[in-house]
User: Fold this.
Amino acid sequence: MKYLAILLLSVSFVQLKAQTNNSPYSIFGIGDIEDSYFNRTSGLANTGIAYRSGRYLINNNPASFSGLDNSFLVGEIGGRAKFVNYSGSTVDASNNQSFDITFTKVVLGVKPAKNWGASIGILPYSSQNYEFSSPLTATGVNGGLVANSFYKGSGGINKVYWANSYEFFKHLSIGVNASYLFGSLSQKIVLQDANHNEIVSTNNNVALSNFYLDYGIQLFGSIGKKFDYSIGATFANKSNLNADISQVVYGADSSVLNYMNNPIPIRTFTLPNSFGAGISLTYNKRYTFLSDYKYQEWASTKNGVYYNSFLGSSDFMNYHVENSNRLSAGFEFSKKKSMYNSLIELRYYQAGFYYSNSYLNVYGHQIRDIGGSIGMGVNSKRNALSYSISLQYGVRGLPSLQLVEEKYANFTIAISYRDFLLTKGRKFF
Assistant:
């Protein structure tokens, strides 16, 4: 248990680097919605709705936690380094790259009883980070008076969750994930003169929060002596995030010119009905093929009236929300050794591919994201630590007249530790 305590306490000393990755499309809606779980499935292009593991926490489906090994407590932390290259007609070729490193998660999992698995933790749900300038020209004034508007946004939504799953009949697991979503999206708009001196600035903040439920199911078993299968599904019902909006206007000398609380009649942002399905097939306990499909009904949320940090209605930049979908597939090879009349995993290797259409349609183009990943993991022989690393490369958007193309690379690492749980003499094996 001392290693688990050190692992979790180390989170308190992690210095989180401020975001430097500009994400142009995070200006819309609630920002970029996270599709990674920073766990063992990262090298599989985050394919894992049907994945079950005895040693790792698989947040892709709350029904997976009943598959944890009995009598163990598991803890995991994760982080990500991201590099982005931007291209497009509006991108400055001399300043078209960004890089950052962020701490992403801390989660715990346990088997309180033989058929009951549970997990708690915190994960990112969405993020916002952007900067851009827009020149302004007033015609008819001395041949045209030129000014500039500078926009800067930051923030995001976090997810604190408590998930429980129960296994029935040794082949069926049902899970429920109760979460609390909270966070804020902040934006600063600065009006500058022709020499980029500040004239007036407006600081907008949208605080979002509410409870959120999602559900999962997995059906699993064996086909003969060589094949194991698992079929999974997830669902989340339409839910509202409560919005608390404030606006402060500052003069050039930082004096407060105006303050308003909830200046516009927007009180909620609606999250859509979400569906997911996946399948996993394992041969000889070592070779696993997986595939996932996810679908979200954003078009029915009526978020067209939502004002993202006062940028305006859905007509701003000609954007609106659409139904989103994501297809992914992965392959994993697990190197195992026969010990103590059982198979012990030493390490594993992974590869995956994904294709998705986001919930944003900008200037008549639904923002597409396509890419692949590779990964590997090692279970230490000397202690109870496990290490998972993955590398993901993808392309999002288009380098058109109004849009920006992002070519990005993510390096993800997750560290897992497990130890025997004090069970007052009870053993579940």
In short: Residues 2-9 form the longest helix (8 residues). The longest strand covers residues 198-223.
